[in-house]
């Protein structure tokens, strides 16, 4: 006979479907509980029936012992099958349906017994306790088999023990009562099992719908895949329950938001604090690809509700992209400025060529001096007032770009900024954003002008940028610092509404502030205060100090003097 193909072999064991497994386990549990409950009920029932039988036997024995004819017969008549003791004992036995009633004297000799031949013989069980005046209840086995017994002492009129009375009830009758109760118990247990099976079926159906009829192994594999995917992707994932509390964070979300496992189980307001990022995660701000700022990071957030009332939010780091986009915008602006300068330079060269051809040499020299002097004066003025090279270069470049757009960018005469900045790149970001916004606001208007002022108060840097534009209404002065809010058309690389938000975040990170008000001549005036933005000034060594530095300075001075 050929072996059974593997596909047709009977497989024993647990089924793979969750519905079948849950139903089978719950039915097994219900059956086990029913059997256990039946056993726990039968055990005390058997003991209770034994106690009841023994108490009944004891009661019959006490009733028999209280009959005066019994005690008088034991004292006055010999043991005889036709004696008064035997007749009275048999009458009581038949009336109570006891298995036997045995009356005996102090010598253990029977005066009564259901079997007449046993009268006059000694009993087979020890009646010492009853003859000592104590009542006895027990389950024992005698000449008539196993029975429930009750033994009491037999007293005469002088209350002296003259014998004992032993009554037995057949144990088989007790067992019969117990057995007769079992079908009813099994009926109840069967009913309970049926109800349990129905409840198990309903629960299994619900579990089947919620698990989409997947096997436990499939669910375990899905969980493992989910953990690997969540912690492996380069997007932040934040899951919230129906109460709005954070229940899951992957590694990227922890990095982007700057929080850890302590945030799990807490609301976004408690874990992140107030801000646009919190509003997006909590669902108070809706939309797709919402821009938020967390620390120095620019994030793109999306929030998707799920069936259980919670939500899943995804976060993408757009900081580098935003920086590249701004650099691209700056590069395009510089290219346009260079193109315009090239055109302007060509016009100047044509003018110079014409002056030379007309032999107006003095005018040509004057024209070249004016052109070169204007650019040199502007750069020298900025470098003299702003000693930090990054900021000076930024302002010179912004002035050139602004001029090509018809905007005059002035650096205030009160500007004084030493080269002792703790975070020059941060201040470059702040100045660049404010100047760009001011130039955009006044471009295309008459007498467009932007003025920038950088001054120090101790170690505090105060930046002021004002323009001659339309200004900002009072009800929108706080709104302009909100991430994603802008009145300008989005650039090609993405969305606006990030610059002023970054300005305020950078200022607040250093313990400062960023505010806006109306300028003196109209327009908007932005003020940024940065406390502790400068390092302590270095002390110059005196001539009296004998230090290696002083010696070096002295040697250098002497060498220079000799060289002269």
From TrEMBL:
Compositionally biased region (Basic and acidic residues): 536-547
GO biological processes: regulation of DNA-templated transcription
Pfam families per the UniProt record, alphabetical: HATPase_c, PAS, sCache_3_2, SPOB_a
Keyword Nucleotide-binding carried by entry: yes
Annotated signal peptide: none
Family matches, as PROSITE patterns: HIS_KIN
Enzymatic reactions: ATP + protein L-histidine = ADP + protein N-phospho-L-histidine
Catalytic EC class: transferase
Segments of skewed composition (Low complexity): 548-557
Region spans: Disordered: 69-89, 535-564
Enzyme Commission number, as recorded: 2.7.13.3
The protein, known as: histidine kinase
């Amino acid at each position: 006979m050929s072996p059974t193909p593997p596909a047709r072999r009977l497989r024993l064991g647990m089924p793979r479907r969750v519905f079948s497994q849950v139903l089978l386990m719950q039915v097994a549990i219900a059956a086990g509980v029913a059997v256990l409950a039946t056993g726990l009920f039968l055990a005390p029932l058997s003991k209770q029936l034994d106690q009841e039988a023994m108490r009944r036997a004891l009661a019959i024995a006490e009733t028999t012992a209280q009959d005066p004819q019994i005690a008088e017969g034991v004292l006055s008549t010999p043991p005889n099958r036709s004696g008064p003791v035997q007749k009275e004992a048999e009458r009581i036995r038949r009336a109570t349906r006891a298995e036997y009633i045995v009356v005996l004297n102090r010598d253990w000799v029977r005066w009564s017994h259901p079997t007449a031949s046993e009268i006059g013989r000694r009993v087979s069980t020890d009646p010492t306790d009853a003859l000592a005046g104590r009542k006895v209840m027990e389950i024992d086995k005698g000449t008539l088999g196993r029975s429930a017994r009750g033994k009491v002492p037999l007293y005469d009129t002088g209350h002296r023990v003259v014998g004992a009375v032993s009554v037995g009830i057949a144990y088989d009758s007790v067992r019969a009562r117990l057995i007769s109760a079992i079908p009813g118990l099994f009926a109840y247990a069967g009913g309970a099992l049926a109800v349990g099976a129905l409840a198990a079926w309903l629960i299994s159906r619900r579990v089947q719908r919620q698990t989409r009829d997947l096997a436990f192994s499939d669910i375990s594999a899905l969980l493992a895949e989910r953990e690997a995917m969540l912690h492996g992707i380069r997007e932040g994932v934040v899951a919230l329950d129906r109460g709005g509390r954070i229940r899951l964070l992957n590694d990227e979300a922890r990095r982007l938001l700057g929080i850890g496992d302590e945030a799990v189980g807490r609301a976004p307001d408690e874990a992140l604090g107030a801000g646009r990022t919190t509003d997006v995660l909590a669902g108070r701000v809706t939309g797709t690809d919402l821009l938020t700022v967390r620390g120095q990071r620019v994030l793109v957030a999306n929030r998707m509700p799920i069936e259980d009332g919670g939500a899943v939010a995804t976060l993408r780091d757009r900081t580098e992209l935003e920086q590249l986009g701004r650099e691209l915008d700056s590069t395009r602006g510089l290219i346009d400025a260079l193109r315009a300068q090239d055109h302007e330079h060509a016009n100047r060269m044509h003018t110079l060529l014409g002056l030379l051809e007309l032999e107006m040499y003095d005018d040509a020299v004057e024209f070249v001096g004016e052109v070169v002097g204007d650019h040199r004066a502007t750069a020298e003025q900025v470098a003299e007032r702003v000693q930090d090279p990054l900021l000076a270069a930024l302002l010179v470049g912004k002035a050139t770009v602004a001029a090509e757009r018809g905007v005059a960018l002035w650096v205030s005469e009160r500007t004084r900024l030493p080269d002792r900045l703790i975070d020059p790149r941060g201040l470059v970001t702040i100045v660049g954003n404010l100047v760009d916004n001011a130039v955009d606001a006044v471009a295309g208007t008459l007498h467009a002008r932007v003025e920038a002022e950088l001054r120090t108060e101790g170690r505090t840097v105060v930046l002021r940028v004002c323009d001659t534009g339309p200004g900002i209404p009072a009800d929108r002065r706080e709104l302009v610092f909100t991430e994603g809010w802008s009145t300008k058309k989005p650039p090609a690389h993405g969305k606006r509404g990030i610059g002023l938000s970054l300005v305020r975040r950078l200022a607040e990170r250093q313990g400062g502030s960023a505010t806006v008000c109306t300028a003196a001549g109209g327009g908007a005036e932005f003020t940024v205060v940065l406390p502790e933005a400068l390092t302590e000034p270095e002390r110059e060594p005196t001539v009296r100090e004998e230090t290696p530095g002083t010696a070096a300075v002295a040697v250098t001075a002497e060498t220079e003097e000799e060289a002269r």
